[in-house]
Amino acid sequence: MTTSTLDRPAARTYPAYSRPLWRRALLTREFAVIALLIAVLFYSNANVPNFDSPLTMYYLFLDIAPILLIALPMTMIIITGEIDLSVASVVGLSSVLVGVLHQDAGMSIPVAGAVAILVGAVCGAFNGFLVAYVGLPSLAVTIGTLALYRGIAVGLLGTKAVTDFPEKWTDLAKERITEGSSYPMILVPFLVLAVVFVGLLHFSPFGRGVYEIGLNDEAAHFSGVDVERTKFWLFVMAGAVSAFAGIYYTLRFGSARGDNATGLELQVIAAVLLGGVSIFGGRGALHGVLAGAVLIGVISSAMRLESYTVNVINIVIGTLLVLSVISTSLLAWAQGQLARRRASPPVSGQSSEPGQRRQAAAATDSTNER
């Protein structure tokens, strides 16, 4: 019995199973956040008085700079399925250390800042050790260290504030990149760190390991990823970057206090989740996170110019965050339903026309052989 090559199904290759490039690029949560950001910018420029002025953009970036900085390591931590709620307390602790070391110990701002960053890295290492090597849940650990680090900060300085900082350093924290520019100088170190973290997450074996841990840490372990070491160093990076953000925070406002940046961790997590990172881990991209952070800043700035209260602004941002989290579950449910419909077998008696032709050809061959 001979069979025709026309009856054989064509071999499927990997591209045959993948989505088209335009769908992979455009039909993503990251692109949706970027599109929403562009729409809000256009609307605010057209309808909010003075929103498009260089001064408004300048203060917008000054305000969101700490969020942008801390969101870089926080993105990688959440992609692994963990979380760090102690970052704002590290900001406050580093702020106090800069103030105390400069005022009481007579250290220069660069030396005091270096010590503060080192202490921030140690705080992150303590979190990472408890999470990665002891095996404690990151939510419980960082809730505890949130209170611990904030308590140390308040204990070192009490209710006082250190405000005696050299004017050249406070001016540097608020300096523009160029005269009359809308962009403050703090964006320069942020861009450097952003390039480093983008390369680390999206273009290195370390970053691929981060995604594998978020999808299945046990499978990642058996595939050669050092799960414990990866998580440990992510928390160390979060502590160091948070301490750097604390130094900027201190010099920008010219005040070192134990309660500096209280609640900042919630804004960072909101920006990360709004930017498309899954709270369950394994999914996310830094360009979406940065767009989410800027989107929160734009909405807050525009609503403040329209004289809305802080409570109303928080309601709007909170609603947007909840919708973004719900949309992930709804999209996954819809894709699952569609996949099940495509995979369901045809109803009896409704065979396809090519199948009927092949059956007829087989019957003819069998008759000829007899």
Automatic annotation (TrEMBL):
Region (Disordered): 343-370
Residues spanning the membrane: 26-46, 58-79, 85-102, 109-133, 139-162, 183-203, 232-251, 263-280, 286-305, 312-334
Matches recorded under InterPro entries: ABC_transp_permease
Membrane topology recorded in Swiss-Prot or TrEMBL: Multi-pass membrane protein
Keyword Protease among UniProt keywords: no
Signal peptide bounds: none
One Pfam family here: BPD_transp_2
Localization in the cell: Cell membrane
Keywords per UniProt: Cell inner membrane, Cell membrane, Membrane, Transmembrane, Transmembrane helix, Transport
Keyword Membrane: yes
Designated name of the protein: Autoinducer 2 import system permease protein LsrD
Source species: Nocardioides caricicola
Organism phylogeny: Bacteria, Bacillati, Actinomycetota, Actinomycetes, Propionibacteriales
